[in-house]
């Protein structure tokens, strides 16, 4: 598949997506976080790309949401779902669900949702989810003690891009390699031609080094796991709490993470800790060892009577106060003992192994002196040895840990993805529970069940608590007027119908006891306009409706009090005309209007009228039956009030007035 074939993906985005490991599979997976790893692609854009890929897969180029209000209802639906997510990933991933007119897309989404609603939204899982985030790629670590070497320009370019962590050096012959071995602890030669090379230092000829990055730069894997430690631990906790089938061996993962420090180094190895401490403490230990020897000598000298011959005395005075020869001659045993003490201290303090202790012994024991002096070159040799042993040990441990982690690299991707996907499923499950939802039946436009039928529908978008929402039954097939008292719930009914249809075509459950919805090609929902329109706006609105009645089949048209756009007489005629046109096209329409009677009179066909009825006024309050009654023109609020007055007052005026309705 060409990436550019995805709706909304241009050449620039396609180029960014090609930076991903497997661009097509990633885009098709719908994994918003993985798509967002492409440079310059944020999660919102990734969600749009994933949606575009879904559309392409289902040949779904329709736009169900045809008006601003329809788009608003979709946003409100998405927000209700998003509010129930824990992770940012799930919130974005939910955006890949959109109302579709494609049966296969709706079916695909429904099968995801059907298993999602079976999930148990356990609070412990939600708590664990709080720490889960998509895995991140840490910045490239520079490794300075190792280099790659090649004689070939092409290999050099390949190495530089495959292993940006290491310097890549050009070499022509063994001498060049040997020179590199003096500057780097390890040299990896990439050319077969150097096989059998015999130079001093840690030099390896590994022509396949670029294909085995875990071995060549274990630091890369270690940095990845160190940077993602908390996410991985959280994902492992989610799997534990939710009892998900595991992609990765969690015990192995925990064990490997415990051996890794946040800076990508290996912890918990006693030998490495010993060597590291020995290098760090070397200078301090040498100086303490000197003091130990000095103290020992001082004590010995204090306790001894030293007889000094005249010539010696003379030479002492003439040479300055050099007592070394005296030490050598008179206190040889004591001096040796002091030196032994110093050596012992050094070996103990640095916890040296026997062969290291041999090197350490050379630090003391030169010409006798007081105070005792150490041999700086021996210290430096010891330091070099200990540092090299430390680095060798660290490199071996890194390589071992990287090899353990290498096996987990793929599984942890899945581990985290499964945890994040679980959050998406749990959000859907909570939505379904919170709003007593049911899976709707979405039927083909030409089925006998065209239009919509909702039973026990309760809108979560109302301005009252969900528990106070009264259930509504409403079914429409064809174009219908919806009449009713003020504040009877007409607008709320349109909102409910729009929400149920949008959710159903997203493949989501709907807040009703049961619902059957036609698979509409387009949903046109027009909210009530705020007051009369000026001539220009009125003309524009009429044009909209002109386009609407000319448009495709399979539309749902919901219109709230269109009469408010102009004077009542003209409005009734316009609405009647629109209804006629829609009726001829077998569109489904609900037009809320207070002018139902006038529209019916102005129409050339038998307009269906439903009504939200008031059972009457009780203490000035409307008692309303919220479910529209089919084929019934509801009485208006003014009519109800006149009727009440006609009953209450002993005058003909209200009775006469009532007859005019
Ligand atoms: N199903 C319902 N359950 C509970 N309360 C409802 C329901 N439907 C509507 N209401 C309440 O009635 C109020 C008015 O509803 P709505 O605006 O839908 O009425 P309307 O018939 O469109 O009014 P108007 O004729 O003034 O435009 C809502 O704000 C809500 O508080």
From TrEMBL:
Gene Ontology BP terms: mismatch repair
InterPro entries hit by this protein: DNA-bd_MutS2_arc, DNA_mismatch_repair_MutS_C, MutS, P-loop_NTPase, RuvA_2-like
Cofactor: a divalent metal cation
Transit peptide is among the record's keywords: no
Database matches in Pfam families: HHH_5, MutS_V
Residues annotated as domain DNA mismatch repair proteins mutS family: 477-661
SMART domains: MUTSac
Keywords of the record: ATP-binding, DNA-binding, Hydrolase, Nucleotide-binding
Top-level taxon of origin: Archaea
Binding site for ATP: 484-491
Molecular-function annotations in GO: ATP binding; ATP-dependent DNA damage sensor activity; hydrolase activity; mismatched DNA binding
Known role: Has ATPase and non-specific DNA-binding activities.
PANTHER family with a match to the protein in the record: DNA MISMATCH REPAIR PROTEIN MUTS FAMILY MEMBER, DNA-BINDING PROTEIN MUTS2
HAMAP family (alphabetical): MutS2_archaea (MF_00971)
Family: Belongs to the DNA mismatch repair MutS family. Archaeal Muts2 subfamily.
Name of the molecule in the record: DNA-binding protein MutS2
């Amino acid at each position: 598949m060409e990436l550019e074939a995805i709706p909304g993906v241009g050449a620039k985005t396609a180029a960014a997506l090609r930076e991903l490991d497997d661009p097509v599979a990633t885009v098709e997976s719908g994994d918003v976080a993985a798509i967002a790893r492409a440079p310059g692609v944020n999660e919102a854009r990734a969600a749009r790309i994933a949606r575009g890929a879904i559309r392409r897969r289902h040949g779904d180029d329709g736009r169900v949401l045809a008006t601003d209000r329809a788009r608003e209802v979709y946003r409100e639906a998405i927000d209700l779902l998003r509010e129930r997510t824990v992770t940012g990933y799930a919130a974005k991933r939910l955006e890949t669900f959109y109302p579709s007119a494609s049966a296969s897309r709706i079916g695909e989404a429904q099968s995801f949702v059907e298993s999602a609603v079976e999930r148990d939204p356990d609070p412990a899982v939600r708590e664990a989810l709080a720490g889960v985030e998509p895995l991140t790629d840490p910045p490239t670590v520079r490794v300075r003690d190792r280099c790659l070497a090649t004689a070939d320009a092409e290999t050099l370019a390949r190495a530089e891009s495959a292993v940006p962590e290491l310097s890549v050096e050009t070499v022509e012959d063994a001498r060049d390699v040997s020179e590199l071995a003096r500057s780097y602890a390890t040299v990896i030669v990439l050319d077969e031609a150097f096989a059998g090379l015999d130079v001093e230092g840690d030099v390896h000829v590994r022509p396949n080094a670029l294909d085995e990055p875990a071995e060549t730069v274990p630091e890369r894997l270690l940095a990845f796991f160190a940077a993602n430690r908390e996410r991985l631990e959280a994902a492992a906790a989610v799997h534990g709490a939710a009892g998900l089938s595991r992609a990765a061996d969690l015990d192995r993962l925990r064990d490997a993470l415990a051996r890794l420090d946040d800076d990508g180094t290996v912890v918990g190895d006693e030998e490495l800790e010993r060597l590291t401490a020995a290098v760090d403490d070397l200078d301090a230990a040498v100086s303490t060892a000197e003091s130990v020897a000095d103290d020992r000598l001082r004590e010995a000298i204090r306790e001894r009577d030293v007889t000094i011959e005249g010539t010696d005395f003379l030479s002492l005075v003439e040479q300055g106060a050099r007592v070394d020869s005296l030490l050598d001659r008179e206190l040889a045993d004591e001096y040796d003992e002091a030196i032994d003490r110093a050596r012992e201290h050094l070996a103990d303090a640095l916890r040296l192994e026997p062969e290291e202790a041999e090197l350490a012994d050379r630090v003391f024991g030169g010409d006798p002196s007081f105070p005792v002096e150490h041999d700086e070159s021996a210290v430096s040799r010891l330091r070099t040895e200990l540092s090299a042993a430390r680095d060798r040990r660290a490199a071996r441990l890194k390589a071992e840990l990287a090899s353990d982690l290498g096996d987990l690299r793929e599984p942890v991707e899945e581990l985290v993805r499964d945890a994040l996907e679980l959050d998406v499923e749990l959000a859907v499950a909570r939505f379904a529970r919170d709003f007593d939802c049911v899976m709707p039946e979405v039927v083909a436009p030409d089925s006998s069940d065209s239009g919509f039928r909702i039973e026990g529908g309760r809108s979560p978008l109302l301005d009252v608590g969900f528990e106070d929402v009264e259930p509504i039954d409403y079914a429409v097939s064809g174009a219908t007027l919806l009449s009713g008292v003020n504040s009877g719930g007409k607008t709320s009914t349109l909102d409910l119908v729009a929400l149920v249809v949008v959710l159903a075509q997203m493949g989501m459950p709907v807040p009703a006891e049961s619902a059957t919805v036609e698979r509409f090609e387009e949903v046109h929902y027009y909210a009530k306009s705020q007051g009369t329109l000026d001539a220009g706006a009125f003309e524009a609105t009429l044009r909209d409706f002109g386009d609407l009645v000319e448009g495709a089949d399979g539309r749902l048209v919901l219109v709230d009090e269109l009469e408010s756009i102009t004077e009542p007489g003209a409005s009734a005629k316009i609405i009647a005309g629109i209804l006629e046109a829609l009726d001829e096209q077998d569109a489904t329409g609900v037009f809320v209007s207070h002018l139902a009677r006038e529209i019916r009179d102005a129409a050339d066909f038998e307009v269906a009228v439903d009504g939200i009825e008031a059972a009457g006024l009780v203490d000035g309050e409307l008692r309303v039956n919220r479910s529209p009654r089919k084929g019934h023109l509801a009485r208006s609020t003014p009519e109800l009030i006149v009727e009440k007055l006609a009953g209450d007052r002993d005058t003909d005026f209200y009775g006469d007035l009532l007859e005019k309705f």
